[in-house]
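Worked example 2:
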Amino acid sequence: MSKTPPSAYDIDEYYADNARGSRLSPMFDGLLRILDRGRVRAVLKHTRLSSGKVLDVGAGDGKFLHFMQRLGFEVHGTTTSKRSALAAERFFGLRLDVSESLDNQAPNAPFDLVTYWHVFEHLEELPAHRQAWPNLVKPGGFLVIEAPNIHSIGARLCYRSWLGSDDKHHVNHQDPATIIESLRRLGFEPSRTEYFSTKFSYVYLWSALLGRLFGRSYDFDGIMGILKSPFRMLFRRPLWTINALAAVVYLAPAILVLMLYGLTAGQGEVLRVYAKKQPT
């Protein structure tokens, strides 16, 4: 009997060398919890939801759902990774649906909120997801998508090192105008569009500037390696790694200026769109 091949999101090239359902080193877990709490606060502020049912598609280790559940929401989530599903159950007591499709969520619908946090760009079956959205979200409910902005400043500075690229796993890059227009065709009206993320904007620009300033030695895989296993990279490539880590500080003035410009010009590192389901 042949074994079922592992999900692309259970193999070591995607996850760090641990079973926490995170792509990054465990040393970043505390920071990621803070950032996910901030993400929850932003969602509640801009949707004005205070209760209801939430579906997080591609829920990772379940941090976002965990914080929503603590606020009284009924939470549901999907993942394509058995490793992240185990982490969500181990750390937060969440039972995620391990599936690439949304078929198993139909009985739980409609939802007040459906979220795609850096999952949209991974979707190999995008048409099936789009087809499900009008039935998954109740009228007046929200669909929230956050994805890398392929027209951002960082992407143009040095796409091959820009952490939003990840051509091995991001199979569905789309520009913001295309995403927003597709939402409107499906009966969702964007109520708010943002081009900034506290979780991603700084590191995306940091990665792009490293590639732009120091050449091909700073490619996507190398920079991602620092975030996955910084001590291992420090041992393997000490000067290279020290420079990259120091650049987090000495490139800060340039990064902050570029972040501000991107935010005001609609060329920031991510697109986050809050789309409200219109009455039929």
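The first strand starts at residue 53 and ends at 57. The mean pLDDT is 91.
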